[in-house]
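Pipeline run #58 for the internal structure catalog. This entry was flagged by the ingest filter as a single-chain record with no existing model, so it goes straight to prediction. Upstream metadata was stripped on purpose; only the residue string is passed forward. Reviewer on rotation: M.T. Logging verbosity set to normal.
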Amino acid sequence: MTAPPDVWKIASVADAARARAAADRIATDAGAPTPERARFLTALTARLRRCLGRGGEWELLLHVRQSAAGQTGRLEASLSPVGHSGPGVLDDVPALTCSLPHQPAHQGPSVATSLPEALLRADEDTAEVLSLLDEQESLVRLHREELHQTNQGVLALHADLEAAARAQRDLLEAERTARAEAERARRLLTFLGDASAAITSSLSHTAILRRLSDMLVPDYAEHLDVWLFDEEEYADPDDELAHRVREHSAAAVAAARTGRPQHAAARPGALPGVDDLPPSALSPERSLLAIPLVAQRLLGVLTLTAPGPRFDEDTSVMLVELARRVGVALDHAHRYQQSRNTAEALQRAQLTELPTPPGLLLAARYLPATWGMNIGGDWYDAFLQPDGSLLAVIGDVTGHGLHAAVVMGQLRTALRAYAVENATPGEILTRLHRMLGHLQPDLYATALIARFRPGEPEVVWSSAGHPPAVARAADGTVRILDAKPGVMLGIPLPYVYTDHRADLPAGSSLVLYTDGLVERRGQGIDPGIDRLSHALAALNTPELEQDLDAAADALLKPLLHDSERDDDVCLLLCHTVTP
């Protein structure tokens, strides 16, 4: 049940004080918490002051309302002017409320409290509120200190995170730099390996220098110049420019004199293992790098013009190493060319000047291999025997180079010696076989010997593993003398070679050759022999008898025009005429 409200008339300050004291007593008896009671009374005092400030008589209603259970409730306070039936001046302000934990013991005018007592109680409430305020301030200070420490920790954490992020960025940048340097080093090493393979795969100094220029320009050098001290050995004697005196930079001259790499630029390059010089008069705007080409001796100087502002350290190290390998490759090419020239000169010196016997025309050709060391083993020979017959010989020693040329000379000399006794071709080959097996057990040779007698319309021949001779009749019919050949000379087993006979009347031709004329890689020898047969059949007898040398060239042309000769070629063309 809800008790009727207490009504207080407010016309003076004393009335307001007594009403406030009554409200304080009700709230205190009902056990309202001090802070809530203080807030309620402070708000009520403020409203009472406003009413007194407006004048007139006011009515304060203090109404205790109970909850449904009757244990708790609330105190409501509302002010309105007396005698005013319409909306009051404070009607727009809601009533003040204060929660009551339990019902007050007394209500009505009896709850009035004397003003001194109310004042003391107000001081007690103020003291309690101040005590609570002090506690709150202590808590606030504590929380403020904790917040400050937290802020300091957050700032320190931010600083640590920033330092960690900075360190992480530095590490990432260092890793990127290391990766870039490693990738660049890998590219330089890959280029050095590829370039080395390219220059060492050739034994021609011209090809080596051309490949070097193709690889370095324009990525690693804007321009390059190679100064070879013995370059006149390789120069074309008809090329006037090749024999012209060339200008070389001071850096190249210094490199040639000292044997050390030289760098010429406006600023020192500080390149590892490289001396610095002033800028070159030949290229004042660009950096020059002059590197000696050294093998067992100083061969020359490689001068490079920088593709950009300067040479960097890694590139200069790679270029110096590449120049060292170029020097070795050029030295190998030089030695190879010397050996090749010596073998070719020895081979040509031992080739026979063809005789001119009655009833027989002879023409011969010797073509060294265009590349490689495949020279020095092929030979031809033609000479008269004491009985007036002529022996035509074609042969090929296995192996190449100077040693093969020397063995070829020994075989040629021995063959002529054995032929002095008018031995047959088979007998001569049998003796050569025994001699070669004893003299050079690790070398073998093939040979074919044909003997022509004046006035006889036939040829006697014998072969030691050599490609078959090709014969042409006067009417243009071609046949291959493909009787079973004997074994190669020098094979470690006893063997007696057989003589064979073939008709060869006047107007007929016989072609002796080495395998370099007819053999091609991947094709074997038979297609080449067929091409030779067709080329021989295409000739006519008047051409053969009028100019046998031109006929020999006509035989070579269709067989060699589409091929780089990787082996020696020997050809001996014999044509019979009426004595």
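catalog note: The chain is about 45% helix and 20% strand.
catalog note: Residues 236 and 327 are 22 Å apart (CA to CA).
status: ready for reviewer M.T.
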